[in-house]
Amino acid sequence: MNPIDRVLDALRARGGEPKRYGDHWQTLCPAHPDENPSLSISVGNDGKVLLRCFAGCPVKNVVYALGLEMADLFPAFQRREERQIITTYDYTDENGQLLYQIVRYDPKDFRARCPGKNGNWIWNLKKTRRVLYHLPEVLSAVQSGQTVFVCEGEKDVESLCKLGLTATTNPGGAGKWRSEYSEALHGAQAVIVPDKDEPGRKHAAQVTRSLHGVAARVKVVELPGPGKDVTDWVQAGGTQEDLFQLIEQAPEWEPSLQDSHVDDSPVGLVKRLADAIAFSEHFAQDQGSRLYRFSDDVYKSDGAAYVRRRVKALLEEWSLTGKWSSHKAEEVIEYIRVDSPELWDQPPRDVINVKNGLLHVSTRELKPHSPEHLSSIQINAVYNPDTKCPAWEKFVSETFPGDARNLAYEIPAALIVPSEQQDKALLLEGEGANGKSTYLRGVISFLGRSNISGVSLHKLESDRFSAARLIGKLANICPDLPSSHLESTSTFKTVTGGDVLLSEYKFKDSFEFKPFSRLVFSANHFPRSSDGSHAFFRRWVIVPFPKTFDPSEQIPSHILDAQLSDPSELSGLLNQVLDALRSLRERGTYLESESMRGAWEEFRAMTDPVAVWLDRATVEHPDAMVTKDGLLSTYNAATRQEGGPTMTRQAFGRALRRLRPNIQEAQRKIAGKLQWVWLGLGLKSKDDAHGADNKNPVNRVNDPGVGSRDSLDSRDSSLLYINRGKEGDQKVEEREEYLEQSRENPVNRVNGMNETLTTSSTNPLEISNNNTCVHCDAPANRFSEDGTGYCEDHL
Fold first, then answer.
1. Are the C-beta atoms of residues 366 and 383 closer than 8 Å to each other?
2. How is 696-719 classified by DSSP, letter by letter?
3. According to the model, what pLDDT value does residue 778 have?
């Protein structure tokens, strides 16, 4: 099957419908939630399939989402796995049990593989023990005092075996000798037979240095003739007798000869070290150029530290300790890093790394681990579909609100797959011993400590190095968030908005990256912020922890932590989380219960009381106005009654301009006095601010709604005036006395108009021009909301 058909079939198998447009196809991208076709597929001049997601998904993410490998994009002649296998070389342990194979291809190439559990091959050695070729025969020859020949490559070993000799080699060829290989030759009569080229001589020097003091005797034999290696020499007629004559003539190796064939150039040594280290390891780098190593089935950020240790160990093995320097180690690290692939910007949407394999979260199919899974994330749980988590279920039932218990599983469900609910931050709130910290410790244990950062929101905003700690992390979980004032929220909005973040490691250049880490905090009290915008508050999901456990009822924290982090419990929790993930994806957002909504409203009120009060007590309307002094005094009276701090004129004005950008400042004559007013804003009536008549509301204009908690009484009705606009400054009398007399009557919620004094034929927003009583010609000294005038006798 050619590459383009392979890719198109994979798309159709996953529900895609690629449509052809000339020389390319378009379809929905499988690597991200896609509503409009954003994936373009075409074929290059060399037959390679070209994939481009216009939403920005990396090619490797698209390929992985299709269940393919990068090699599947190339024609067959370029695909390594379709090259012909010439032969395989078995490496066994002391008892002849197969550990791994070296596979030789045509065209010439070598790959290592080890047997899998289900009869398949795993194409890397990972934690597989490395041994010498023909190890059982080598050990037997050493014990019996026979000569053991060390060659460069398995083919040369087989050539000497045909002569009736015992020979061995190390996997990987020249420059890949390990110190543990020498232990198998302890007390041996060892003869090194190098290839007749510079790499072969360097390899021989490395092996002899390693065997010196371990083997009983070490000799190096250079074969005569034009051939370049043992196989050429044997094919040219070399015999066992000829070889032993050469051994008799060769001197024993002495340390004084150790550097005769060593490349002393700095670049040469760096390359030798890097090649020796990289042969048996898999490395990758993150967006900040930090080196990672594939260890325990996942990429870990200790790559640089590992390379430093190996450089030192190799120089000691090669008797080149004097060549050691920290600068040399850094050069080797950089040499390896340059050719290392970059970790995925974001892990796949449907595949997670668990302790026992790569798990597809939708199909629950488990596949073997692979270094091709370029992610530094591994969930700290074993997948077993039959396991339960009774301790977790009991804990959740006792700590979470009854209407929000499913959220306990939806939170880790959203965290294990970075594409879910990235625009939300979580805040667990409640005073005292209520279980929120225990819950977070349990979640950290489930996700894996290495997948978590713990930076406070305040430090993320103030410390330029802190953001880099989010790289490659599933979540930033910070218990006990301080309640101190938060001056800035820009980093918070960038992270929750899925935008690119500028950061830096200490003493290194700055760089940009797109964090997929979600923000999770807990607090005894809500933090205060200067940001009262909707964009700030809508990003928060507040989870209340209302219960407080008596000390006599509490399980000691270390015991409860041990129960929740038990491997069996974590395995059962994984099953609950996978079920919750399905529900989360169907709903498209976190479960939001009544208790959570109430907690969110309280958070907003505590964080920005002005915003909450304005929503509750005022209304925006183009024909409304209110005096500045009156609005401020009403707010301060309300906040004093609630026990909160009052505000100065300047501070209140700044908050009002931020929260109500559409209103304007102006001067108007009120009761004969020129006063500063806010145009476009008015106070709701007392009953409306308290939420009265909600079941049968009357006409509203741009009314943001009534608050969920009781508001406070205020002189709002006497402060709402009609704005005359073009007709100039229209004096409008205060209506205090009138409202006292008509308190029992319903009030229009837009402008506080008394319904009984409003006629259907009158525009309620017009004021009478004649200023006389509607019933007689006497001067009117009181006006209804529709502008109708009344004298004292006809009120």
1. yes
2. S----SS-----SS-----SGGGG
3. 64
